[in-house]
Amino acid sequence: MNKNDPNRKPFGFPYDPYPIQSQLMNAIYNSAEQGSIAIFESPTGTGKSLSTICAVNLFFGKQF
Prior knowledge:
There is one protein chain. Helix content is 50%, strand content 0%. By secondary structure, the chain is mainly alpha-helical. The chain has a domain at 17-35 and 46-63. The N and C termini lie far apart (27 Å). It contains 2 helices and no strands.
């Protein structure tokens, strides 16, 4: 996702995310926003934990 993309969400990722990390954060955030159940899979070393934390943190930050 391009830094200048107007649809880019402020996930608070501590550095420039790789495309797979941006895709994962968007998918997690959108699933949470829709209240849907989702299962995500990504290879080892792709930043799943940090991507999840950033996406969920943004979602809950907007809820409360």
